[in-house]
Amino acid sequence: MKKRLFGAAVALLVSGLLLAGCGAEKEISLSEMDADQYVTLVDYNNLDVSVEPPVDEAYQKQVMMDIYNGGFTKDNGGITARAVETGDTVNIDYVGEKDGVAFDGGTAQGALLTIGSGQFIDGFEDGLVGVMPGETAALDLSFPDPYPNNPDLAGQPVVFTVTVNFILPAVDGEEDMKDEIAANAGIEGVSTVEELRQWTYDAIYQQAYPYYVMDLQNAILNELVEKSTFAELPRELLEENKSLISRDLEHEAANSGITADEYADQYGMTKEEFVDYYGTVNTKANLACQSIADKEGLNVNDEELQSLLEQYASQQNYESVEEYMGDYSREECRILFMTDKVLSFLVEKYASAN
User: Which of 104, 222, 274, 325 could be joined to 269 by an S-S link, Cβ 3.0–4.6 Å?
Assistant: First the structure.
């Protein structure tokens, strides 16, 4: 709902709600509370959480295959001695014309197409069955109507001039791959199938890891809130959190073009139930994280807070810390930074145990 203060800021349970809101009329110093008075923590050294790994094996294999197929050429593994059959993957050049004029998006060179996959309009793939590599086919076709990708072409007759360059040999899996093809796939530093496999894994991992960490943080936070035992919550902190949730709910609903009641209804709640539930959850999360911070030395003192604010303001090209903070109070920023330290600590524990 609000801008994130740092890349791994915590999204709490629903719709990006953060652990603390902003703009409170009366600032409450959570670090000055005795959090243990209100929460008996679950054993946070042995949390039972599970999230999907950052690299899905099936997806990695597909990406690896797509890259590997790019290493085939007419003279390096490509098949040229037989005609195209249904199920073949072919390397083609094509130009699509309407009334003799090439249209946008209708031209490509070295495109890979599996015959029978339905990637192209009706008649395109079937029209290549029986064509020999090196031959050119003129396909008289019509675009479907409607055609959302380009309404101007909907229902229009066109001619595709298609040259089949070569047929790719079938590859059932990594065991059928060859180093010379992998080396020709255009990936710097990759000259073997094993290096291509590792490169693919690393590339997917790097892209997916931040989302994996965020999912893991949320799972950990859920476990802390659900499995810890809470006494009667401090009224002032609870009411402040409810006020913040209420305001953020109104803001998020307005951004979505609906009322707060309609927004809450998407979660099977009335507005009042939504505010009460997430205000309570936020308060419990605040207290659980503060208790761990107290035990593990993960609090953020004034000097560290100022240093972090200056660091992030500079990194994001704000002219001042005040501009960077916007409507956040310093205490709210401290809670966010403290929470990030706690969850980073718990993520590291989880990673080392798994």
Answer: 274
